[in-house]
Design brief:
Elements: E1 16-18, E2 21-25, E3 32-36, E4 39-45, E5 51-58, E6 66-69, E7 75-76, E8 79-85, E9 92-99, E10 102-103, E11 108-109, E12 123-125, E13 139-141, E14 164-167, H1 169-173, H2 186-191, H3 193-199, E15 203-206, E16 210-212, E17 236-242, H4 255-268, E18 272-277, H5 294-302, H6 326-342, E19 347-350, H7 369-376, E20 384-387, E21 407-410, H8 412-423, H9 428-436, H10 440-443, E22 451-453, H11 463-466, H12 502-521, E23 525-529, H13 565-592, H14 625-635, H15 647-651, H16 654-680, E24 702-707, E25 720-725
Parallel strand pairs: 14-15, 14-23, 15-18, 18-19, 19-20, 20-21, 21-22, 22-23
Antiparallel strand pairs: 1-2, 2-8, 3-4, 4-8, 5-6, 5-9, 7-8, 10-11, 12-13, 16-17, 24-25
Helix pairs in contact: 8-9, 12-13
InterPro entries: GH, GH13_cat_dom, Glyco_hydro_13_N, Ig-like_fold, Ig_E-set
Protein name: Glycogen debranching protein GlgX
Family: Belongs to the glycosyl hydrolase 13 family.
């Protein structure tokens, strides 16, 4: 009997009929809704629920199509699993009802009336267009899996070559000045890829793109009364679903394909994609928040709770995910594996990552299971992992984060040191020098690539704000200035707020260029905030209407009368690789030992090619600010190193030093010519007058003499001019080119 004549598998047949649909016990793994031959398999976890119901909808409908309670035989441990036959995965939506006790003091908050989002849903409906249409309840859907990647693979750019550009998908192109056809969307980001290439960045870090509710903001603009948006998106509703409001095709349910196309086009341009992910809290908030998903499914499992049933608030948003619970840890791993495999994402930046190292009671762990699992996960092996190593509960782990030799960190120490230096604060030079060379006091074991250097990020001031304000002015978000960081280490250059031209504007432009120069030449991974290259400010950025968004940095009408930081950035980035290569070579040379041997252990002197430049040995200790800039330029190959010379030459004027060198070379050349002439004439080859010669700075003093021609050449044979260097005694200079005695 051939394989084609075998009967269909027996488990493809239903065993029950519930709510008008033929069903059978499903597969508990994977979680979520998975198309199977003949239907869809639904699997959901709840350890403490007493009953579970699957609610089916036609796509776009508000009223349920059917409600299918899970048979008790369909429950395996704490997992409810059921296969429903006859369903078209692209034509349905679904939700769950979970029944159980409502006992907040014990941690249970079940509500059998609430329709709950599937935590593993790959598509969500209800917010298909950004702040358009009526509020509709969230519905889970199944994303199609038919995208053609055309051979795309993650780029795997080495960490030492990264230049990260942090951007908000909507804010990057929402303003009409962006000139794109679909502003504020993934498609708009694709249209601006040539600008990113021109700018020179090779990694885009996107602020949250998981599904969230942009209408989840009760405040209004105090100036206009317009409702404000939850603009940044750090309150996640669907962890496996891309934000529909960020897709030009979101109203057609095609946001998954649009985001995949965005990643593919960025990869084609040589740009990696890193996602800002939020696993420290959810959109459900504290006891006063809505019941959307995890709270209604198993509140006690998914959230950190106090002994009396309240929520720990290490995130500052009302709740904290219980990340090191085994079930929640598996949920986080499944989510990241999905984005890495299905969307070809190259890395993740973890918001308030210090929370991921807390135990179920909030105590920091020495060996957090989740962080270790992420570091060693086989699917995530090639993904960059970047941590924001603090949280709202006061845990600050810069340099002490459990890294497992895999994690990089947002280096807040670098940010503060650079800001103090730009202000000119006393004592800031030595601190910046340490941060400039990769913060070896923090990352000596892991290397400088563990440090993500930045001067501004989405939190707080932009780079233009940093040089324009001494104090924050959060007047447009309805919180009366209570939000945000008060210690911004900023200086307004003599005037608070915007100015039009004049010395203050020129000073601010110079400060911006100084910040970019130091950032892009520092050892580590530089991160730029989108718009800083064009002077973007946060004012009005909290308003979500596209007309109120800051102008796009690539706008055609951008002012060009002042020096342009973006152009400076484009000039600096190609040099960054050469700078870091030279810094690495210098560090390796210093670790290998002294540049020159001790005077009593000098090797035999050998001739060195005249073109070899003098070697440079960096100062081993803290470097003052003026020397810091000089040594950075030397390591970049922009200027030559200057070894020490004799005291009389140091004291002489530059012009006199040049004349002395020229005179010595002329004398040496004359002596050589005279020796050759005497040999050609057959004259007595007695030693000629000695001449002192300096072939170049750092060269040995030599005694020149002529020697008889070798036997067989006769009196007309050529003379050989040799330079016999005198032994180096105490206090002498170098004995060969490139060996410098300091």
């Amino acid at each position: 009997m051939s394989w084609t004549s075998l009967p269909a598998r027996i488990d493809a047949y239903p065993t029950h009929r519930i709510g008008g649909f033929e069903v059978r016990a499903g597969q508990p793994l994977p979680f979520g809704a998975t198309p199977v031959p003949g239907g869809v398999n639904f699997s959901v976890y709840s350890n403490n629920a007493t009953a579970m119901t699957l609610v089916l909808f036609r796509a776009g409908a508000d009223e349920p199509l059917a409600e299918l309670p899970f048979d008790e035989s369909f429950r395996i441990g704490g997992v409810y699993a059921m296969t429903v036959f006859g369903l078209d995965p692209e034509a349905i939506a679904y939700a769950y009802r979970a029944d159980g006790p409502f006992a907040p003091a014990e941690g249970d908050r079940f509500d059998g009336r609430a329709l709950l989002v599937d935590p593993y849903a790959t598509l969500l409906s209800g917010r298909e267009r950004w702040r358009c249409g009526p509020d509709r309840p969230w519905r889970s859907r199944i994303a199609p899996a038919d995208f053609d990647w055309e051979g795309d693979r993650p780029l795997r750019i080495p960490a030492e070559d990264l230049v990260v550009y942090e951007a908000h998908v909507r804010g990057f192109t929402a303003h009409p000045s962006s000139g794109v056809g679909a502003p504020g969307t993934f498609a708009g980001l694709v249209a601006k890829i040539p600008y990113l290439v021109e700018l020179g960045v090779n990694c885009v870090e996107l602020m949250p793109v998981f599904e969230f509710d942009e209408r989840d903001n009760v405040r209004a603009d105090p100036r206009t009364g317009e409702p404000l948006a939850n603009y940044w998106g750090y309150s996640t509703v669907g962890f496996f679903a891309p934000k529909a409001g960020y897709a030009a095709t979101g109203r057609h349910g095609m946001q998954v394909d649009e985001f995949k196309h965005t990643v593919k086009e960025l990869h084609r341009a040589g740009i990696e994609v890193m996602l800002d992910v939020v696993f420290n809290h959810t959109a459900e908030g504290d006891e006063r928040g809505p019941t959307l998903s995890l709270r209604g499914l198993d509140n006690r499992t998914y959230y950190m709770l106090t002994p009396d049933g309240h929520y720990f608030n290490f995130s500052g948003t009302g709740n904290t995910l219980n990340c090191n619970h085994p079930v929640v840890r598996g949920f986080v791993l499944d989510c990241l594996r999905y984005w890495a495999s299905e969307f070809h994402v190259d890395g993740f930046r973890f918001d308030l990552a210090a929370i991921l190292g807390r135990a179920t009671d909030g105590v920091p762990l020495a060996n957090p299971p989740l962080l270790e699992a992420l570091a060693h996960d086989p699917v995530l092996r090639d993904c960059k992992l970047v941590a924001e190593v603090w949280d709202a509960g006061g845990l600050f782990q810069v340099g002490s984060f459990p890294d497992y030799c895999r994690w990089a960190e947002w280096n807040a120490g670098y940010r503060d040191a650079l800001r103090h230096f730009l202000k000119g604060d006393v004592g800031s030079v030595a601190e910046l020098a340490t941060r400039f060379v990769g913060s070896p006091d923090l990352y000596a074991r892991r290397g400088a690539v563990a440090s993500v250097n930045f001067v501004t990020a989405h939190d707080g001031f932009t780079l233009r704000d940093l040089v324009s304000y001494n104090e924050k002015h959060n007047d447009a978000n309805g919180e009366d200035g209570r939000d945000g960081e008060n210690h911004n280490i900023s200086w307004n250059c003599g005037h608070e707020g915007p100015v039009d031209g004049g010395p203050v504007a020129r000073l601010r432009d110079r400060q911006v260029r100084n910040a970019l120069l130091i950032l892009l030449t520092s050892h580590g991974i530089p991160m730029l905030l989108a718009g800083d290259e064009a002077g973007r400010q946060h004012r009005d950025a909290v308003a979500a209407d596209p007309a109120h968004q800051p102008r796009h940095p690539d706008a055609a009408g951008r002012r060009r009368s002042r020096p342009d930081p973006a152009r400076q950035q484009q000039r600096l980035l190609p040099r960054r690789r050469a700078v870091l290569v030279r810094l690495d070579a210098g560090r390796a040379q210093r670790r290998a030992g002294p540049v020159h041997p001790a005077p009593d252990r000098l090797p035999p002197r050998a001739p060195v090619p005249a073109a070899a430049p003098p070697a440079h040995r960096a100062h081993p200790g803290p470097v003052p600010g003026r020397q810091l800039a000089r040594r950075a330029r030397v390591d970049a190959g922009l200027v030559a190193a200057q070894p020490r010379v004799r005291r009389d030459a140091v004291r002489a004027r530059p012009g006199r030093r040049r004349r002395l060198r020229l005179r010595g070379r002329q004398r040496a050349l004359g002596a050589a010519r005279a020796a050759v002439a005497r040999a050609a004439a057959g004259a007595d080859l007695a030693p000629v007058r000695r001449h002192r010669r300096r072939a170049g700075r750092g060269q040995p003093r030599a005694r020149h003499r002529t020697t008889p021609a070798p036997a067989g050449l006769g009196p007309a044979g050529p003379a050989v001019v040799r330079g016999a260097a005198r032994p180096a005694g105490p206090g002498r200079g170098a004995t060969a080119r490139g060996v410098i005695h300091r």
